[in-house]
Amino acid sequence: MAKKETLTLRRRGEFVVRTRGDSHCGINEVQRIKYSVDVFCKCKLDERGFLFEQRNVDAFFHTIKSTTKSCEVLSKKCTEKLIRLIVKENPECEIIKISVTLCPEPYFADMTYTREFV
Description:
The protein has helices spanning 54-62, 71-89, and strands spanning 6-19, 30-42, 66-67, 95-104, 111-116. It has 118 residues and is α+β, with helices and mostly antiparallel strands. It has one domain (6-116): GTP cyclohydrolase I, C-terminal domain/NADPH-dependent 7-cyano-7-deazaguanine reductase, N-terminal domain (GTP Cyclohydrolase I, domain 2, 2-Layer Sandwich), CATH 3.30.1130.
């Protein structure tokens, strides 16, 4: 029987965005947002022995300077962009499932978008 092995990378952090419009993530004009990313992958490592560079996940969130999007839409868009970033860095990386959670200040509620690959 073949073994099913996975590696899971979890990254947490916080970033700040300027919000615009009337339907954005959070309630403040300058919004602090905590993020959480969980990436479940098959064990296909790069030449250094890594799935991908987790610091690039944090760097990605710090490139988001403003938004007009709801947390629902923003979490989905972030997931799509992170998938592209990960695959660009390690084309051999096979993502099984990825979840992105955004929790805007005052941190009473969060939104998670999950994509599974079958």
